[in-house]
Amino acid sequence: MHGVPALDLDLDGAAGSEARARRAARCFLGGLTGSDRERLGQQTRQDVVLVVSELVCNACRHAPGRCHLTMALADAGVRVTVEDSSRELLRPTGLPGPSGYGLFIVATVGRMVHVERTATGKVVETVVGDR
Amino acid sequence: MDIDRAEALLTVVVRGSGRSVIVRPEGELDNDTVQPLSEALEDALQGPPGPVVVDCGGLSFCDSTGLNLLLRMSREAESDGRPLLLAGLSPIVTRLFEITGAKSVLRIYPTVDDALAGQEG
User: Fold this and answer.
1) Closest CA to A9 of A82, A60, A62
2) Digit-coded pLDDT (tens) for B7-30
3) Chain B residues contacting A via beta carbons under 8 Å
4) N or C: which terminal CB in chain B sees fewer CB atoms within 10 Å?
5) What is the pLDDT of residues A41-78, one digit of tens each?
6) What does A53-107 look like in DSSP terms, one character per residue?
7) Residue A47: its chain B contacts at CB < 8 A?
């Protein structure tokens, strides 16, 4: 799978992490070329930035310390993965939860949301593509 | 990181127009930048009665934190019997309101002038 455009970003979890993640996401999307660029519509790009922001926001709010953002081009769009230090799972219920609309947005815009516990925390992954 | 944090800043400009207060956030609205808008809206809702218009024309991004604030303030305003109106939504904010269904709950006008006119008419 070498050559697939991807992004790896370590975030300290402090104020400004969300903005930094969005900037990196826009930079990633803006750096796509050729057919990679053409197959992502304007709305998908906006949705990707929104999903990145929401996932990083959740990580910063609910897990202490650093988190890690990965983005990669996938067949169905852009795969967005955020790893954080909390093993507590937030469930994408399909309804706005008590803490708000964050995961609801991710579950609505993303093709699927996959949440998995790891030895040190959890990984939340989704794929955002044209709908 | 200093540059990142500077970019994350949200500024809020508040002005009056007749009985109305117009609150205009500029920049990117998220969990880290929501405070100044939250304070400006609370101040506006505690001020003299009259419509409060949120001019969203300067919002280049809004996340669920910003949406939650707008929904909460809208409910507070309604319970006080005063309208909270949104105007000048960019496509990215409109999209957020569509995804979440907030579009059907919030009172949205194309422009600030439309919002103000709607209140007088």
Assistant:
1) A82
2) 558 999 999 999 999 999 999 999
3) 1, 4-5, 7-8, 28, 30-33, 61, 63-65, 67-68, 91-92, 95-96, 99-100
4) C
5) 999 999 999 999 999 999 999 899 999 999 999 988 99
6) HHHHHHHHHHS-S-EEEEEEEETTEEEEEEEES--PPPP--SS-BTTBSHHHHHH
7) 95
